[in-house]
């Protein structure tokens, strides 16, 4: 399987508000480097650089004004005399009356975010574009008739909505790749999100559309981030009704129950008969993940890959979360090896 990877992800390294104190983000460069090292040591296949794409390739999944905001946020922030990372501090929650776009960067940061989990630094936009381009190049590989490809994206993308960042995410790499597949002739695409956290951003982007089926298996929102999306009752709207499938599972879920959910997801995906399948591949479902609450074990990831291969759809794997840095490489690549029948 071909892997797409750019070291430009290193240009982004952020802070995180953790237990009330500012510290180093769990979402750090070493994550992608550990996965790359495992791709190489297992001989998964060639590793190639992503191509470049212009900003128009991100539109469709995102609005133009959101992309403009991301591209200029660092300059607007530093123009106010600040040199630390940019973080939002105020949000337009229920009950606040204005939907007007603010004119200054402090207002824009809140307007275009769901939480304070996506800091903006000097290299963030370059890294974010390279991550999206990695996913786009992976979709192009499927278009050139590869059976599968692995977009080793960083930063992740699935919490980023049409007009907001959050949860370490800026551009929604999986959604951008899915839209690109449609632009290049796919009639229908499915996205299966197996990150521990609900892919609220991907759901947001395709909620009213029937050409993209979104399926997510995740920790139940009553007790798991992102808390405000991911219930089974969210089934899509308008033309998209029935094309959004949430499969929330309780804390402590292990492979038995997880596997049942994965088969359920598989039936929905095969019914959709997509020309391409995008997997939002998070391995924070691991038993020792520091921020999540499922109990999957290392060999379970081989089985997950094997089950996904059984859906028999050209498949693009897009890297999302996974914060147990020592094991993220082994677990993520196990999914790919399992998919290829190397288990
Ligand atoms: C990103 B991805 C929980 C804090 C949650 C944000 C988590 C973002 C996860 N104690 N902070 O889905 O892996
Ligand atoms: Zn996650």
From TrEMBL:
Protein name, as recorded: Histone deacetylase family protein
GO biological process: epigenetic regulation of gene expression
Organism encoding this protein: Trinickia violacea
Keywords assigned by UniProt, alphabetized: Hydrolase, Metal-binding, Zinc
Higher taxonomy: Bacteria, Pseudomonadati, Pseudomonadota, Betaproteobacteria, Burkholderiales
Protein origin, superkingdom: Bacteria
Entry cofactors: Zn(2+)
Domain Histone deacetylase: 27-330
Keyword Cell membrane applies: no
């Amino acid at each position: 399987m071909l892997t797409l990877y750019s070291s430009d992800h290193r240009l982004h390294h952020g802070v995180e508000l953790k237990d009330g104190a500012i510290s180093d983000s769990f979402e750090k460069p070493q994550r992608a480097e550990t996965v790359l090292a495992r791709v190489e040591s297992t001989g998964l296949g060639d590793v190639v650089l992503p191509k470049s794409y212009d900003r128009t390739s991100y539109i469709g999944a995102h609005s133009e004004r959101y992309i403009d905001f991301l591209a200029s946020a660092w300059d607007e922030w530093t123009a106010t005399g600040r040199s630390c990372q940019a973080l939002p501090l105020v949000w337009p929650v229920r009950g606040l009356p204005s939907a007007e776009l603010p004119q200054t960067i402090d207002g824009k940061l809140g307007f275009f975010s769901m939480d304070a989990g996506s800091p903006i630094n000097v290299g963030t936009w370059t890294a974010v574009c390279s991550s999206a381009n990695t996913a786009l190049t992976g979709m192009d590989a499927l278009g050139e008739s590869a059976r599968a490809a692995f977009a080793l994206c960083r930063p992740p993308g699935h919490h980023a909505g049409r007009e907001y960042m959050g949860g370490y995410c800026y551009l929604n790499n999986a959604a951008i790749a899915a839209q690109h597949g449609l632009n290049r002739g796919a009639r229908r695409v499915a996205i299966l999100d197996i990150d521990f956290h609900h892919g609220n951003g991907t759901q947001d982007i395709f909620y009213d559309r029937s050409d993209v089926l979104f399926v997510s298996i995740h920790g139940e929102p009553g007790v798991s981030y992102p808390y405000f999306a991911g219930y089974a009752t969210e089934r899509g709207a308008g033309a998209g009704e029935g094309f959004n499938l949430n499969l929330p599972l309780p804390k402590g879920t292990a492979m038995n129950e997880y596997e049942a959910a994965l088969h359920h997801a598989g039936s929905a995906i095969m019914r959709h008969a997509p020309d391409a399948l995008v997997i939002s591949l998070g391995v924070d479902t691991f038993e020792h993940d520091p921020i999540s609450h499922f109990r999957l074990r290392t060999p379970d990831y081989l089985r997950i890959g094997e089950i996904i291969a059984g859906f028999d759809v050209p498949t693009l794997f897009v890297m999302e979360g996974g914060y147990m840095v020592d094991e993220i490489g082994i677990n993520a690549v196990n999914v790919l090896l399992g998919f290829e029948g190397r288990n």
